[in-house]
Amino acid sequence: MTSYEFDALTLSALIAAATVLLCFPVALWVASWAGRQGPGGRWTLDALLLMPLALSPAVVGWAVVTALAPQSPAGVWLAEWTQWRLRLVPEGLILINLVLTLPLMIRTMRPAFETVDHSMVLTARTLGASRWSAWWSITVAQTSPMLLSAVVLGFAAAWGECGASMVVAAALQSPLGAQQPGAVAGTVPLTLMSAMQTTRGQDIAWRMSMVSLGVAALAMLGSEWARRRWRRRALPPQARGVAA
Predict the structure, then answer these.
(1) For residue 45, which phi and psi values (nearest 5 degrees)?
(2) Structural domain includes residue 244
């Protein structure tokens, strides 16, 4: 494996980790809030959350570029007042991953918060526990396996995102991958796409595909393990199903 492939693996891992770290507190708050809402509130939230997941990733990439590219009104304003310009690495990749990963993490967490016994939280409050202490020791404790499931799924989703990245790379006229010395490093999906365009890059594409397959497999296994653990903890035996 070449140094450029290691650079792509490292960049993908860093982008995915940064995305999860930024998404997690927001997803945790929204899922906790949504779990206390009635069916009407959940229905509206479901529609909003499913919209980015239902859209083509290319549309999401186009929306990010349209909103924040250096030639856009917001991009010009940001450049004048903060000297910040949208680049593919790392801001562009993190932004598009945030849009695509946050709804997935919220949807994964929310069912766990819906099953929390809030009477236990109220009891803890009447016994002197603070709001934060009751939430942390009861709500988070009951939902922690699904929080882990959301983290690993979010990491895998951010790792493997490609469609929106290609749109942003094309719009910002950035190279797709790090195939030549001195080129800007690309993530694993972008490096793979760039390698597929050349005959000599087939070996690189194969190795990048195998690594991505491994990341996806580990994420799915970890998510399923966490989900089953949550079901055993939160649901009565008759509600767990045969596969629990």
Answers:
(1) -65, -40
(2) no
Q: For the chain, what is the domain count?
A: 1
* Farthest CA pair distance, the chain: 69
Token pair of 92 as six digits:
């562009």
Q: What is the pLDDT of residue 235?
A: 62
Which DSSP helix (H) or strand (E) runs through 5?
A: helix 3-34
List the CATH number of the domain containing 209: 1.10.3720.10
Question: Alpha helix locations (H) across the chain?
Answer: 3-34, 39-54, 57-68, 73-82, 93-114, 118-126, 131-134, 141-160, 163-171, 188-195, 202-234
4: nearest Cα among 210, 195, 173, 144: 195
* E-only strand ranges, 53-208: none
138 pLDDT more than 50: yes
Cβ atoms of 160 and 215 within 8 Å: the answer is yes
Q: Could you tell me how far CA 161 lies from the centroid of its own chain?
A: 9
pTM of this prediction?
A: 0.77
Question: Does some domain include residue 219?
Answer: yes
